[in-house]
Amino acid sequence: MRVLVADDDPVYRTMLQELLTQWHFEVILASDGQEALEVMDGEDSPQLVLLDWEMPEIDGFEVARSIRGGDAGHRAYVLMITGNKQDSDIMKVLVSGADDYLIKPFDPIDLKIHIRSAMRILHLQEELDELRETITEGAPSKVVWDALLKTNLPPFPTPR
């Protein structure tokens, strides 16, 4: 699985890259929000995005909003990484469109737990998309349904 790591701090970027590589992920790095958006706008964009909240130019909030407002066919799980611990800040993270958050500094096992949850949700979303496609492939069009409803149902009784 491809993972985008967007963080302006080279220490965190390197640490995340090393952990994710050990866990057999393909890691793409971005040092700011603009680079992150360019990666997400490209072909075969990552399904998992680890975003630092505070970055120069375009912050993690704007990147998350842009991902959520982008191509509806592309689904990405956004994990916001922040040093802010206040409840109001955490609400901002979730309102921005992030799926989850992790507070810096974090233990690598906590990161692994969050990523495992993200992978499960992404997998379930893929299964749901496949089922939806299977169901709609054989479904009659609206015109056919309307014709069937008009011709095969008895008239609705009128109240007396």
Brief account:
With 160 residues, the protein is an alpha/beta fold. The chain has a single domain, classed as Response regulator (Rossmann fold, 3-Layer(aba) Sandwich). Helices cover 51% and strands 16% of the residues.
Features:
160 residues, 5-stranded parallel sheet, alpha/beta, Rossmann fold, 51% helix
Task: Explain this structure.
- Helix content is 51%, strand content 16%.
- The protein has 160 residues and is of the alpha/beta class.
- The protein has one domain: Rossmann fold (3-Layer(aba) Sandwich).
- A 5-stranded parallel β-sheet has the order 2-1-3-4-5, sandwiched between helices.
- Helix 2 runs parallel beside helix 3.
- 24% of the residues are buried.
The sequence of SSEs as H and E is EHEHEHEHEHH
Shape: elongated
The assigned structural class equals alpha/beta
Total helices: the number is 6
Helix content: 40-55%
What is the mean predicted local confidence, pLDDT?
85
The CATH architecture comes to 3-Layer(aba) Sandwich
The count of β-strands is: 5
CATH fold-level name: Rossmann fold
Tell me the strand order in the biggest sheet.
Answer: 2-1-3-4-5
What's the CATH superfamily, by name? Response regulator
Ends distance: 64 Å
Biggest sheet: strands, sense, closure? 5 strands, parallel
Instruction: Give the oligomer, counting copies of the same chain as homo and different chains as hetero.
Output: single chain
CATH class: Alpha Beta
Uncertain parts: none
Number of domains: 1
